[in-house]
Q: What sequence folds into this?
């Protein structure tokens, strides 16, 4: 069946199977975060070791996502989806039965090898199945899965870890993963054209070292500090490898990841905006639980519960935003969303020791509402400018940039928080010493130290949120330059398919 016939009669049953598979794999991304302290206790490992359960998962994603463009062009979508879900299921079963910490880390990496392919594969399928005038709605429903599943993870795992074994997290996911494999084997068919592209192994090595090194280095910076050789040497090696990777791709006829997609101005602008928004979103998911748990002393489960309405709002808004995008284009939505995000991020920079639970929940939820109006419209508009043959490269680039910018942004803001916390603690301690008398009891001194630590951390978190608000303003300014991409004419599509590297055809975009 050709693309036009598919777009006239969209196989929604097949789309539902793909969405369920994506939901299961995306949920797994954050499902283990709250369980890390319990796993540390069971396997007698330290925080640096247990961190490999998330770092290892992220590294595999960082290595495989850039290569997804090759896999999507070379192999049929049916075989690729079944392989990805099978790897994910094997990893899930191994994790549930893991007899040692090493087995658990290996299981998480096997899971990641399957999960990494899901997002770029599904985005490419959406771009093939839906005509350009309906892509906003389609990507909106995909956004519901992509955003809601990871956001539900902490709340769900918080409840399970409090009442059951952490292994239940994997046993719970396993039957759904098996169900998706069986349904896909029966119903999934090939709808994407394959090409006889070859894999340049040296490019894959450079990509793995480049993106993997940057992800690992920046993710470790918050824990080990920027002065650690583990951090700065890894980032340096990653940066050098990444530069070599980009130079090699630009000199190849069939690159692993085609950087010539940045000749398309709306795609380039959408990538830049998404990088900034990813920094703001990932850092918010990190700073808010730190405030709730470490400053306010609220349990991990209730911390996850606080973030749940934001996830629900993003889930509800994704399809609505998609429909609004199809009708009005991306600019109005993105400007409105980023204005909301800027104001709410600033409000989070003014938190106090006694800010109420429901006030924090309300501000965080409205902030997520603002972000739901930005991500999918901006990304979809950028992808709409690419010729279809370059869609795998566009989706691979977007997903890679989200991973890398999220890690870099989180590390940057956590470092700012730590430095500000340290300087504030020193200042408060010096002030407190002036009021300590010889009669002060050890218990009073301990209470004073705890209060200083709490106040200093609050100040550090608030300052990081203030910096984050400034970062969001940068994205807001860029959004004013967004133009709506209109469907190319049949002649333009034919010209782009013959010479996809030439850049956008004239009149392919229109100012809103």
A:
């Amino acid at each position: 069946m050709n693309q036009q016939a598919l777009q006239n009669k969209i196989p929604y049953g097949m789309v539902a199977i793909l969405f369920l598979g994506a939901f299961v794999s995306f949920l797994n991304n954050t499902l283990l975060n709250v369980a890390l302290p319990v796993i540390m206790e069971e396997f007698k490992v330290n925080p640096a070791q247990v961190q490999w359960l998330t770092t290892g998962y992220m590294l595999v994603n960082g290595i495989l996502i850039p290569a997804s463009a090759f896999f999507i062009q070379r192999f049929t979508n049916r075989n690729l989806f079944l392989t990805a879900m099978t790897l994910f299921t094997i990893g899930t079963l191994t994790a549930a039965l893991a007899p040692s910490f090493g087995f658990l880390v290996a299981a998480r990496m096997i899971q990641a090898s399957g999960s990494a392919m899901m997002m770029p594969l599904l985005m490419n399928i959406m771009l093939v199945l839906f005509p350009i005038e309906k892509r906003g709605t389609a990507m909106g429903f995909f956004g519901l899965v992509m955003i809601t599943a990871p956001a539900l993870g902490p709340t769900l795992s918080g409840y399970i870890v409090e009442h059951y074994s952490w292994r239940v997290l994997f046993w719970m996911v396993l039957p759904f993963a098996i169900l998706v494999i069986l349904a896909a084997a029966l119903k999934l068919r090939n709808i994407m054209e394959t090409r006889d592209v070859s894999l340049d192994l040296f490019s894959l090595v450079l990509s793995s070292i480049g993106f993997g090194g940057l992800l690992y280095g920046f993710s470790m910076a918050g824990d080990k500090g920027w002065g650690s050789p583990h951090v700065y040497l890894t980032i340096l090696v990653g940066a050098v490898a990444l530069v070599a990777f980009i130079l090699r791709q630009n000199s190849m006829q069939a690159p692993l990841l085609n950087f010539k997609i940045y000749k398309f101005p709306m795609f380039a602008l959408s990538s830049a905006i998404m990088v900034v928004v990813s920094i703001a979103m990932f850092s918010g998911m990190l700073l808010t639980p730190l405030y709730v748990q470490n400053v306010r002393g609220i349990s991990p489960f209730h911390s996850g519960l606080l973030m749940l309405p934001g996830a629900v709002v993003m889930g509800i808004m994704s399809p609505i935003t998609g429909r609004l995008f199809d009708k009005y284009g991306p600019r109005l939505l993105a400007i409105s969303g980023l204005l909301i995000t800027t104001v709410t991020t600033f409000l989070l920079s003014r938190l106090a020791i006694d800010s109420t639970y429901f006030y924090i929940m309300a501000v965080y939820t409205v902030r997520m509402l603002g972000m739901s109006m930005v991500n999918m419209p901006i990304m979809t508009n950028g992808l709409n400018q690419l010729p279809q043959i370059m869609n795998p490269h566009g989706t691979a680039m977007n997903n890679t940039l989200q991973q890398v910018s999220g890690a870099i942004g989180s590390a940057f803001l956590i470092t700012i928080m730590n430095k500000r916390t340290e300087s504030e603690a020193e200042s408060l301690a010096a002030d407190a010493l002036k009021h300590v008398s010889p009669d002060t009891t050890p218990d009073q001194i301990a209470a004073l130290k705890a209060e200083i630590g709490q106040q200093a951390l609050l100040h550090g978190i608030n300052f990081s949120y203030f910096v984050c608000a400034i970062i969001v303003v940068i994205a807001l300014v860029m959004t004013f330059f967004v133009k709506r991409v209109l469907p190319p004419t049949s002649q333009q599509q034919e010209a782009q398919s013959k010479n996809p590297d030439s850049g956008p055809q004239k009149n392919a975009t229109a100012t809103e």
In short: The chain has three domains: 1-197, 200-255, 264-512. The first helix runs from residue 3 to 8.
